[in-house]
């Protein structure tokens, strides 16, 4: 099982709050986020839909927006203080690449699996 990324965690934190969702065709949905999934599928209640071509505002009780069609979310400002945005301590995360020990130093004569390797001009 994979862990959720920070955007998905913040979207889950915004359940119950008013959010704005813009989809790829330009429509803008604004309503209360009732349910969301890890792939950004979300269900909004009391939603107003703005059609950019005609400027018509339509009010709908419930809207289910597919995550694949979402361009971006506008979330409440109160989520800016989420613990996911906190500073990470040392040792947190994927780590770093350890320095290669025993790689041979400056001329690295023993690094090619038993094949002779010399630097040009080095005899």
CATH class of the domain at 6-85: Mainly Beta
User: Distance N terminus to C terminus?
Assistant: 54 Å
Strand fraction band? 25-35%
Class of secondary structure makeup: mainly beta
What are the low-pLDDT stretches, counting only 5+ consecutive residues below 50?
none
- Taken from the alpha-carbon principal axes, the silhouette is elongated
Helix residue percentage: under 10%
Account of the protein in words:
There is one protein chain. The protein has 123 residues and is mainly β. The protein has a domain at 6-85: SH3 type barrels. 7% of the residues lie in helices and 31% in strands. The longest helix is centred in the first third of the chain and has 8 residues, at 6-13.
Brief summary of the model shown:
The protein is mainly beta and 123 residues long. The protein is 7% helix and 31% strand. The protein has a domain at 6-85: SH3 type barrels, CATH 2.30.30.100.
List keywords for this structure.
7% helix, SH3 type barrels, 31% strand
What's the layout of helices and strands?
Blueprint: H1 6-13, E1 18-23, E2 28-36, E3 42-50, E4 57-65, E5 70-74
Antiparallel strand pairs: 1-2, 1-5, 2-3, 3-4
């Amino acid at each position: 099982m994979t862990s959720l990324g920070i955007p998905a965690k913040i979207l889950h934190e915004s359940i119950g709050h008013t959010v704005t969702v813009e989809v790829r065709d330009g429509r803008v949905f604004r309503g209360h986020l009732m349910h969301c999934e890890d792939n950004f599928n979300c269900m909004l209640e009391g939603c107003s839909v703005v059609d950019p071509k005609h400027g018509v505002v339509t009010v709908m009780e419930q809207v289910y927006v597919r995550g694949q069609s979402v361009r971006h979310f506008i979330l409440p400002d109160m989520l800016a203080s989420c613990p996911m945005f906190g500073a990470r301590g040392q040792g947190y995360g994927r780590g770093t690449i350890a320095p290669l020990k025993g790689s041979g130093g400056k001329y690295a004569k023993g690094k090619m699996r038993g094949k002779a390797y010399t630097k040009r001009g080095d005899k």
